[in-house]
């Protein structure tokens, strides 16, 4: 019996604010083509006494300096700017297509910078030190609210908060909104920022590379990996129903053929053990899209850089595909790790499908598995389909399947 594919969505615009600047899919393509890492010693604040000092930071010159933007927190500035680039590339104008669009924002930490400033005001001056201007930014939904107002959006709005895979979950929830008919267009943004308190705390807890072993670096899937290196970014995508995008003549960058999420039991702050880690999220998304495993030519994985995390994620993918394993790549060696990074991986997969450009894991000298094919040199052929997989601390898994623009079914929605 032939499985009927679930309703699709199409990506018509990409916006990115990251360590390489701000722009649309053209900037992302340049970054993937150059394959040069933005990870370097932190410039914004001292690292004295910390074993960790590396990060991929956004240059301050990237963020807007308008009077309007000065009222927003830094994370809201990142979100609004990324969404504006995506909207511009999708050619959405101040019409019904934009005003009735929905918005889903995914973030691991939210605006912790504003939360810290708000709390410090109380600790230093008591109740009189609490700032009514800062308080709205302490709410997890603040970035989505600010962006909705800035862009004039009137559709459904949602914020997804999840460790490591908030970006992918935001894409998956946006797909549900489209399938339910809640909106014909949904803007998705995965965003997380760096700031001293967050970085220093994680470094002091030895969560970050080098974890008191070896030299500090971002080396996912290599035997020398010893923890993640943090980055910051905001990545936005415009998702539309195929019929809506084609009716307005929108450029289609890629098709989202399926999205699933679930989890495997484990302790908080840990990944599942190899014995209980499940491949069912991957097999579910393949079944949902009615695409056989042999048609998946590439997989963008989390590339967290933690030995246990990398080992379990590769095991899940290997079990799902058996002998027909796709090429594996990641973007963390270029941009660092952040909770909203999954949206960037989806955007990068769209660029790979459209232009045949993918990040090369050129640092990979000692793969932790020799039965996995990694992208260690430029790939000439364009993939037929790409899996974007995420694994979070706590056991949550995500799987999003992307297909070329030509794979779109205008009758699917």
SSE layout and pairings?
Layout (H helix, E strand, L loop, with lengths): L8 E10 L2 E3 L1 H10 L5 E2 L12 E2 L11 H4 L3 H16 L6 H4 L2 E6 L4 H14 L16 H10 L5 E5 L4 H14 L5 E8 L3 H9 L28 E8 L1 H6 L6 E10 L16 H10 L6 E5 L6 H15 L5 E3 L2 H4 L5 H15 L29 E7 L4 E8 L10
Parallel strand pairs: 5-6, 5-7, 10-11, 10-12
Antiparallel strand pairs: 1-2, 1-8, 1-9, 3-4, 7-8, 9-13, 12-13
Helix pairs in contact: 1-13, 3-6, 7-13
Family: Belongs to the thiolase-like superfamily. Beta-ketoacyl-ACP synthases family.
Organism: Tectimicrobiota bacterium
GO molecular function, one term: 3-oxoacyl-[acyl-carrier-protein] synthase activity
Keywords:
Peroxisomal Thiolase, Chain A, domain 1; 13 helices; single chain; two-stranded antiparallel ribbon; 13 strands; about 425 residues; 11-stranded mixed sheet; globular; alpha/beta
């Amino acid at each position: 019996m032939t499985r009927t594919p679930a309703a699709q969505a199409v990506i018509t615009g990409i916006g990115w604010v990251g360590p390489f600047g701000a722009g649309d899919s053209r900037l992302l393509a340049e970054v993937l083509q150059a394959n040069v890492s933005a990870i370097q010693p932190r410039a914004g604040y001292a690292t004295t006494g910390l074993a960790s000092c590396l990060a991929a930071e956004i240059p301050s010159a990237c963020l807007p300096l308008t009077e309007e933007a000065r009222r927003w927190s830094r994370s809201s500035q990142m979100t609004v700017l990324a969404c504006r680039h995506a909207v511009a590339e999708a050619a959405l104008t101040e019409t019904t297509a934009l005003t009735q669009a929905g918005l889903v924002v995914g973030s691991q930490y939210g605006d912790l910078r504003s939360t810290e400033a708000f709390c410090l005001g109380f600790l230093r001056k008591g109740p009189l030190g609490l700032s009514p201007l800062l308080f709205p930014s302490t709410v997890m939904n603040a970035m989505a609210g600010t962006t909705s107002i800035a862009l004039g959006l009137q559709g459904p709005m949602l914020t997804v908060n999840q460790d490591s895979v908030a970006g992918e979950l935001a894409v998956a929830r946006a797909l549900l909104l489209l399938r339910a008919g809640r909106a014909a267009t949904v803007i998705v943004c995965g965003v997380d920022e760096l700031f001293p308190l967050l970085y220093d705390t994680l470094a002091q807890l030895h969560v970050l590379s080098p974890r008191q072993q070896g030299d500090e670096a971002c080396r996912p899937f290599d035997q020398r990996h010893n923890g993640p290196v943090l980055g910051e970014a905001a990545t936005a995508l415009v998702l539309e129903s195929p019929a809506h995008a084609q009716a307005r003549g929108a450029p289609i960058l890629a098709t989202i053929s399926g999205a699933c999420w679930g989890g495997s039991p484990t302790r908080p702050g840990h990944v599942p053990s190899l014995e209980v880690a499940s491949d069912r999220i991957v097999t579910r998304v393949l079944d949902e899209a009615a695409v056989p495993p042999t048609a998946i030519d590439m997989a963008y994985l989390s590339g967290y850089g933690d030995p246990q995390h990398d080992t379990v994620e590769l095991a899940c993918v290997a079990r799902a595909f058996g002998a027909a394993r796709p090429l594996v790549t990641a973007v963390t060696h270029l941009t660092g790790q952040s909770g909203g990074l999954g949206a960037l991986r989806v955007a990068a997969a769209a660029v790979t499908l459209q232009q045949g450009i993918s990040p090369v894991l050129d640092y990979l000298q000692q793969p932790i598995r020799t039965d996995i094919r990694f992208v260690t040199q430029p790939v000439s052929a364009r993939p037929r389909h790409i899996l974007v997989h995420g694994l979070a601390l706590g056991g949550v898994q995500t799987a999003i399947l992307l297909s070329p623009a030509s794979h779109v079914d205008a009758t699917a929605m």
